[in-house]
Specification:
The complex is a heterodimer of chains A (330) and B (282).
Chain A (H helix, E strand, L loop, with lengths): L2 E6 L7 H11 L3 E5 L8 H4 L2 E16 L9 H5 L5 E4 L1 H6 L12 H5 L6 H11 L5 E4 L9 H5 L5 E16 L2 E8 L6 H18 L4 E5 L6 H7 L4 E6 L3 H16 L4 E6 L5 H13 L3 E6 L4 H7 L12 H12 L1
Parallel strand pairs in A: 1-8, 1-9, 2-7, 2-8, 9-10, 10-11
Antiparallel strand pairs in A: 3-6, 4-5, 6-7
Chain B lengths: L1 E5 L7 H10 L5 E5 L14 E15 L9 H5 L5 E2 L6 E2 L9 H5 L5 E16 L2 E8 L7 H8 L8 E4 L6 H7 L4 E6 L3 H17 L3 E8 L5 H8 L4 E6 L2 H8 L4 H4 L4 H19 L1
Parallel strand pairs in B: 1-8, 1-9, 2-7, 2-8, 9-10, 10-11
Antiparallel strand pairs in B: 3-6, 4-5, 6-7
Helix pairs in contact in B: 4-5
The chains are: A alpha/beta (330), B alpha/beta (282).
Chain lengths: 330, 282
């Protein structure tokens, strides 16, 4: 049975990736999954040689065919994500970043009892002034729900599957690694995380590897939930700061919510020893176990510069990281 | 003026920058903490709590007496949030984006929309700083609607600082969209540089003027500086790697109060941001 260790933190920048890279070195035949698909950094340490690349398509985006658009404004009235913008021919050429004029008051929709869009057309003409109104869809705001395509009386909008990024299977000195790159301003990072994890687990089972190490994203939202679901253990890396403590408490509520066993590691503990004590107390009370502490160590940055995991150097914190690892494996 | 503070990598100092920048404003300023998954700005601003309000998204509720099981709603939904299997459809609230499509397409008018709580907005007042933050409920996946709700609290006219979440995907876009200037904060390390590049691609995609702040300057190397020079990105401020800053931060103190010698750093940043904004609007 393959186990899955997910390294998360709540707060960003507490040392998830540096620890995950060290665990990848210390573990026995692991598969590594970089699930921080927004800002993936593990490859900077593990120097993967890419074996396979796959396009990641997920969800949809609305494409407005200008030649068919009759300028009625139904799409603008119905879009709840501020993705439809009314503009003029001129504006459309010059600016894509103007905010949507619609503030979702919904007046036009509620007022248009016949649904023939006559009133909407009239309103659009009024707001648009002398120039004829044209509409544009901002792909970075569109959530691909398809409502605009559905309400468009002229069939001017179609939905296209969206290319959101790519995921890769690679070889590293520690074992196979699955990682990904989310496209600029793309959506569905949660689904990309699920894809990366599923692939890592498949490889582990196929090659009878005992452990998948997941480098997770910060926060508690969609990509974190996707990283956690069904994992054997979550290691929460925190730091002895007011933010670190606050965010650890929230991420521990999340692991409890999904009933994932949690362990806590205080990184840079000697920055504020009293806060480290308090954090561990709080973690124990919340039902987590303590995986250990790692000292503040400038050599962690030097290891990163040399593209090595901390445990591959002679940094002072190596013994701390080894002890955390043996506590986790116990 | 709206300035958004963002970064690809987490933990580079977004909140530190946002709260200290807000503190050196001479007049009223709004601080909109859009890191709704982990809102931290309030930990640094001792102040009076104001009101709290619940934020919801609309999700479908099916009236089984009216539903004839036609399945239009399930065929419409792109998020698998409503699934029609023969009889009355099942709703999966966690998947729902609240687009309203299912209610619109239902021929029987059997679907009405009901509010589902996703989090709260809280306000605080600390001197001249009006802080608004969102707090996403535990287990809720979708942050963008709450981020949009926080931003809807912006008062026209008053300057605003947005503290964005880390990363480069939908929550960051929801947070920085509509800002006049974006300040990207990073560290001079390989991780910092790699994630800065992603963040630069993002703000270029959104076509917002931006500059870079280097935090913990002195660790790592000069590759971030070289990158900014090559890409003609203005370097707005360097905050040195000073253990006293880390310790003040750890205890929830503002740098400009605990270490007044840094006050001028943040004042110069405030002026540079104002200049970027006025140049852009010319």
């Amino acid at each position: 049975m393959t186990r899955e260790l997910v390294v998360i933190s709540g707060k960003g920048g507490t040392g998830k990736t540096s620890l995950a890279a060290s665990f990848a070195v210390l573990a026995d035949r692991p598969v590594i999954a970089d699930c921080d698909v927004d800002a993936a950094d593990l490859h900077l340490v593990l120097s993967p040689r890419v074996r396979e690349r796959h396009e990641f398509r997920s969800g949809y985006e609305a494409i407005l065919r200008r030649e068919r658009c009759i300028g009625c404004g139904a799409c603008l009235a119905f879009c709840r994500f501020g993705a439809v913008r009314m503009t003029t021919e001129e504006d459309l050429r010059s600016a894509r970043d103007a905010p949507a004029d619609c503030d979702h008051c919904d007046y036009c929709r509620r007022s248009c009892s016949t649904r023939t869009n006559a009133l909407i057309r009239e309103m659009a003409a009024t707001i648009g002034g002398a120039q004829p109104a044209v509409y544009a869809i901002d792909p970075t705001a569109c959530e691909g729900c398809g409502v605009c395509a559905c309400v468009c009386p002229a069939n001017a909008i179609e939905l296209r599957e969206r290319l959101c990024g790519e995921w890769m299977v690679s070889d590293t000195r520690c074992g196979p690694m699955v990682h990904a790159r989310l496209g600029v301003a793309a959506e569905n990072s949660g689904k990309l995380v699920s894809t990366v994890r599923r692939e890592a687990r498949r490889i582990a089972e196929e090659q009878r590897r005992p452990l998948v190490i997941v480098d997770g994203p910060p926060g508690i939202g969609c990509p974190v939930i996707a990283s956690l679901a069904g994992a054997s253990l979550a290691l929460i890396v925190t730091e002895p700061t007011v933010s670190g403590e606050h965010d650890m408490a929230r991420v521990l509520s999340l692991t409890a919510h999904f009933r994932i066993p949690a362990a806590v590691c205080v990184n840079k503990w000697d920055l504020a020893p009293d806060a480290a004590d308090r954090i561990e107390d709080r973690a124990l009370k919340a039902g987590a176990r303590i995986a250990g502490r790692v000292r503040y160590d400038g050599a962690v940055t030097s290891a990163q510069m040399q593209e090595r995991a901390v445990v591959e150097t002679d940094a002072a914190s190596v013994e701390d990281i080894r002890s955390v690892w043996s506590n986790l494996s116990a | 003026m709206i300035a958004a503070i963002a970064s690809g990598k987490g933990g580079t100092g977004k909140t530190t920058l946002a709260v200290n920048l807000a503190r050196v404003f001479g007049s009223d300023v709004q601080l909109l903490d859009c890191d709704v998954e982990e809102p931290n700005a309030h930990l640094f601003l001792a102040g009076d709590a104001g009101e709290e309000s619940i934020v919801t998204i609309p999700i479908p509720e099916v009236d089984a007496r009216l539903c004839d099981g036609c399945g239009e709603c399930g065929r419409f939904c792109r998020y698998s949030a409503i699934v029609a299997a023969g009889a009355a459809p099942l709703v999966f609230p966690d998947m729902c984006h609240g687009c309203g499509g299912c209610a619109y397409v239902c021929p029987q008018k059997a679907i009405r929309e009901v509010p589902k709580r996703i989090g709260v907005i809280e306000t605080f007042r600390s001197g001249h700083i009006a802080l608004v933050h969102g707090r996403l409920d535990i287990g809720v996946a979708m942050a963008p609607p709450l981020i949009r709700a926080v931003k809807a609290r912006r008062q026209n006219g008053a300057p605003a600082i947005i503290d964005a979440p880390p990363g480069t995907s939908c929550p960051v876009i929801a947070a920085v969209r509509g800002a006049d200037v974006v300040v990207l904060i990073t560290e001079p390390t390989p991780f910092g540089l790699h994630d800065l590049r992603l963040a630069v691609d993002l703000v270029r995609e959104l076509r917002i003027p931006f500059g870079v702040v280097v935090n913990r300057a002195g660790i790592g190397d000069d590759r971030v500086h070289a990158f900014c020079a090559r890409e003609r990105i203005p370097l707005l401020l360097e905050i040195p790697d000073d253990r006293r800053i880390a310790e003040a931060y750890a205890r929830g103190k503002l740098i400009v109060e605990a270490l007044p010698e840094y006050r001028a750093h943040f004042e110069s940043l405030r002026e540079k941001i104002a200049r970027m904004e006025s140049e852009d609007s010319e």
